[in-house]
Amino acid sequence: MNFVKINLWTWEKGTQYIWECLDAKLKNSARLNSTITKVERKDGKVFVTVNGQVEEYDKIIVTAPFYVNDGNGGCDNGMLDYFDAREDEKELFSKIEYERYTVQAVTTEPKDHPEISYYVFDNMTPGRLGHLMVYYRRWRDTVDQVITTYALRKHKNKELIPYEDCNKTVLEDLKVMGNPAKDVVNKWSVYYFPHVFTEDYAAGWYDKVEAMQGKDGTYYAGEIMSFGDMDETAEYSRELVERFF
Predict the structure, then answer these.
(1) Which of 212, 228, 222 is nearest to 92 (CA)?
(2) What is the per-residue pLDDT for 229?
(3) Mind listing the pLDDT tens digit for each residue in 57-113?
(4) 0.85 exceeded by the pTM?
């Protein structure tokens, strides 16, 4: 099997700590544990239902997912679910796709612990969909830690692999790699890397969305408007604020 071991630099306290430090310096701290169930734009204002209460604003910047394809042709928990979405928003945002990764945190026996993180390149092809692609050892100097595994369940024009089927395949792959799991301590499915396909990109998807910025007091940011990493997402958000505010 073709694989490569890699050294990775990581934040000692994780990236969450960066945003906690930033939030501590803000005049108005982020409001956490809040559920938005409705956004209505009318009469030049934006009315947001938060935790059951309607709040009025002049403008809104959306950084939450615009559209989450549920795999059955519908939208699940995306912006289009709770906004009074216009037809242009529905048309453009329904083209958004994302990567269906399954992630597991596992422990191993000390003798089976990987010496470092690995990319399994043989499994990074459509024909090996659902197999282990990456497993990640965070700390270099200890074997008393979880290993995080990543596998992709969906590829363009291919059937979505069921979540549990993919998890079982990954555990079998760990045995093949010589790092069998002792226990699975956590597992989850990730909304990752929202994107549009090449034909929509070439047809001017980004130009059309940028032309909608500010319409009905609404602005769009987040991963889909930049790229799926922290640096470029933050850079785009800052540029958006400088451009319009």
Answers:
(1) 212
(2) 87
(3) 999 999 999 987 655 444 466 898 899 999 999 999 999 988 888 999 999 999 999
(4) no
User: How buried is residue 9: exposed, middle or buried, by Cβ count under 10 Å (0-12/13-18/19+)?
Assistant: exposed
Of 228, 225, 229, 71, which is closest to residue 237 (Cα–Cα)?
225
E strands, 87-182, where?
97-107, 117-119, 132-137, 147-152
Quick one: CA dihedral 176, 180, 184, 188, positive or negative? negative
Question: What pLDDT is stored for residue 1 in this prediction?
Answer: 47
pLDDT of residue 144: 84
Which three-class secondary structure state does DSSP give residue 100?
Answer: strand
Q: If we measure between CA atoms, which residue out of 132, 117, 135, 122 comes closest to residue 5?
A: 117
Matching residue, tokens 């395949």: 169
d(CA 39, CA 49) in angstroms, rounded, equals 6
Per-residue exposure over 66-95, b if at least 16 CB sit within 10 Å of its own CB, e if not: bbbbeeeeebeebbbebbebeeebeebbbb
